[in-house]
């Protein structure tokens, strides 16, 4: 099986946990996807069922994996930090998550313009194109995923590992936020500022990048306020 290697005798449990964590952190086992069934994991790792079960259970307790009765086990978060942020975000209101998003993304936009590399520029352009393609479709969940992927590419361009980890932990909650906003807007693809944000980062203009971020964040706040009024 891709990504897994036979475990050497000794501390079997620790090595299995480490391999699972590496697959999750690398995105090989992406958030929201189901991990391989137990028999496949046992065969790939060359360990007993109990060792695999204990490793999976440990990552469930840590919040990285989530069992779904009758379906299987899914990846919930990429790190302990991400799991903790997700647990907290699920207990709060959408506007609170949006407020945190505003704080992070305004400064991230400016930092990305100052510190982006050639590789970051390529990644941002590719993510923008994927977002543009998702805008043309009718799948709202696909649009939400593409939107979050674009913003994660922007944050990655800051080169700040702490900010990158914080944003990665918040990504699932952010995707939920985009979906919530989507439900109350006739054209979620019409959020202004994304094209301008990418252009400003490529040009190395932090002021323009921050201004572009303000545009789409203000649009999100306006839509949320409108949805609250219509629901009241």
TrEMBL record:
Keywords: DNA-binding, Transcription, Transcription regulation. InterPro entries: GntR_C, TF_FadR/GntR_C, Tscrpt_reg_HTH_GntR, WH-like_DNA-bd_sf, WH_DNA-bd_sf. SUPFAM superfamilies: GntR ligand-binding domain-like, Winged helix' DNA-binding domain. It holds the Pfam family GntR. Residues 10-78 form the HTH gntR-type domain. This is FadR/GntR family transcriptional regulator.
